[in-house]
Amino acid sequence: MTPAKKTQKQAAKKTAAPVKKAAVKKAAAKKPAAKAAPAKKAAAKKTAAKQAVVAAPAPAAPEQEAHQLRTESEQAELRAALQERLDELVAEQRRYSDSIALAQRERLSDTAGDDQIDSGSKTVEHEHEVAVAGAISERIRQVGHALERLDEGEYGFCEKCGKPIPAARLAAFPSATLCVSCKQLEERR
């Protein structure tokens, strides 16, 4: 027999043979020793990572950024922009409400001669207008909430984690109440 075949047969005999208690104890003794070395390395990596996190000045930048939004002139600009958006939304909601009311009156007064397709089309249009009006109402609520948070001094900070919301997010969505990571977690649910 070749030496490779002999080692294969010996390995097969060892795996096929019943395991003795002494052998199990030896194997058990070897496993903690093998695990102890990587644990030390992992602990060393964790302490190095903690030191790196402590040494990194990057987390201070968003906090400074949020506090810079709190100056009097910028708060006044934010309040003006939010109030302007609120006024636009209220005017748009009024237009939709008027349109819905007019369509409702027309539908009730002039249904003679309508076939099923016309009736269905009017119903779909009505449902669309109601859905848009509902979305506008939700936006009005969000902007109003942002104005309240601005008055309370909480504007620009996440409602869930308390961390500052980046200025770029607030510029894109001024009524944001959650930071990007909290919003992503909320959307996943």
Automatic annotation (TrEMBL):
Residues annotated as domain Zinc finger DksA/TraR C4-type: 153-188
This protein's UniProt keywords: Metal-binding, Zinc, Zinc-finger
Region (Disordered): 1-75
MF terms in GO: zinc ion binding
SUPFAM superfamilies per the UniProt record, alphabetical: DnaK suppressor protein DksA, alpha-hairpin domain (SSF109635), Glucocorticoid receptor-like (DNA-binding domain) (SSF57716)
Compositionally biased residues, Basic and acidic residues: 64-75
Residue stretches of biased makeup (Low complexity): 49-62
Biased composition (Basic residues): 1-12, 22-33
Family annotation (InterPro entries): DnaK_N, Znf_C4-type_bac, Znf_DskA_TraR, Znf_DskA_TraR_CS
Zinc finger (dksA C4-type): 158-182
Name this polypeptide is given: TraR/DksA family transcriptional regulator
The organism's taxonomic lineage, starting at the top: Bacteria, Bacillati, Actinomycetota, Actinomycetes, Glycomycetales
